[in-house]
Amino acid sequence: MAAVETSMPFREERVRYDLLAALAAAAGAGIAAFRARRRERALLVALSRRSPRLLADMGVDAEQVYAALDGSWDEVDPARLRPGLPRRSPI
Predict the structure, then answer these.
(1) Which residue from 27, 51, 80, 81 lies 20 to 30 Å from 13 (Cα-Cα)?
(2) Residue 24: pLDDT above 90?
(3) How many other CB atoms sit within 10 Å of the CB of residue 76?
(4) Containing domain of residue 46, as a range?
(5) What confidence tens digit (pLDDT) does each residue in 52-70 have?
(6) What global pTM score does this model have?
(7) Structural domain includes residue 7
(8) Do 86 and 76 meet the contact criterion of CB atoms below 8 Å apart?
């Protein structure tokens, strides 16, 4: 059997099992998930504004990017997909 020797003194810390600590941990996880979702959404929007040919060169299917935006055409300029449509005016 092997023995382990430590050079540091052992510290014993108390573990908190209270409601506020649980709520703080849940809120921290919720905020982290919210930020991750916002970063993912911003990436999808940035990709959707690129040329479909550029997306194809990158190996990304443009239709999957547009479908991931949940049908929100506010983010995608439809005139890029069909050259005959009038361009959206910037506000």
Answers:
(1) 27
(2) no
(3) 19
(4) 42-75
(5) 889 899 898 888 888 888 7
(6) 0.53
(7) no
(8) no
